[in-house]
Amino acid sequence: MNNKLYLASQSVQRKRLLQEAGFDFEILDQCADERSCDWGMPMQKLTEHIALLKMNSTIVPTGKNVGEACWVITADSLCVDKHGEIFGQPADHADAIRMVKAIRDGAVAGTAFCIDKRAWNASSWQVEKRFSGYAQGECFLDVSDESIEWYFDQLKKVSGLNYMKLAGAFSITGFGAQFLKRVDGSYLAILGLPMYEVRQALVATGFFD
After folding, report:
1. What is the CATH number of the domain that holds 179?
2. Cα separation, 38 vs 137, whole angstroms
3. Structural domain includes residue 209
4. Which of 57, 101, 152, 178 maximizes the CB count within 10 A of its CB?
């Protein structure tokens, strides 16, 4: 199988999940302005909207042959605390500390993704099929006040994760796994890419044909 797969994301977690599942893919940039979104929407609708915005803001390299196909994946992850506040990536260090404290009482983390199958028509890529999906899980994290700074440092040192690039400023894998009390729902949606749902979408769009 030589189908071309692109991941339009700089997320370390998403890259790892696809690599560990055995996919060959290339990373693309996208220039979506998430500040233009209505952050008053419910979390699921907001993540779906941002994933689609990212898809429409992704530039795929020029094709070589008429009719050749490629698949593009975009995704967005957010979480919402017990009080209904939606967390994306922290605005600054103080915001990151606030988020980690809030998640002690539990937070629902959701990931929406969008997958395009595109075909090259000699001058541009045309979308042949588009599939969107969403999954979520609830997690409970326990990082004490005196451990938060150390927690942030170790996420980078041990797991290679920048807490400022993580929704909610936390991770439940690698170094962060030891602070995870419980998960209900989709573990991989919390990580950033629900792989079962992604595979089903790739099947539906003919990636494995």
Report:
1. 3.90.950.10
2. 23
3. no
4. 152
Evaluate whether residue 57 is within a structural domain: yes
Q: What would the two tokens of residue 105 be? A: 């009482």
Count of domains observed in the chain: 1
**Contact at 8 Å (CB) between 5 and 23?**
yes
- When pLDDT is averaged across residues 56-70 and rounded to a whole number, the result is 94
CA–CA separation, 34 and 37 (whole Å): 6
For 115-168, how does the pLDDT look when each residue is reduced to its tens digit (9 = 90+)? 999 999 989 999 999 999 999 999 999 999 999 999 999 999 999 999 999 999
Beta partners for residue 78, in sequence order? 110
* Burial class of residue 28 (count of CB atoms within 10 Å of its CB; 0-12, 13-18, 19+): middle
Domain, as residue range, for 36: 4-204
Determine the average pLDDT of the residues in 203-209. Answer: 95
Output the pTM of the full model.
0.91
Strands 125-141 and 107-120: antiparallel
Q: Confidence band (pLDDT; 50, 70, 90) for 1?
A: low
Q: Is the pLDDT reported for residue 63 higher than 80?
A: yes
3-state SS class at 193? coil
Q: Is residue 95 part of a domain?
A: yes
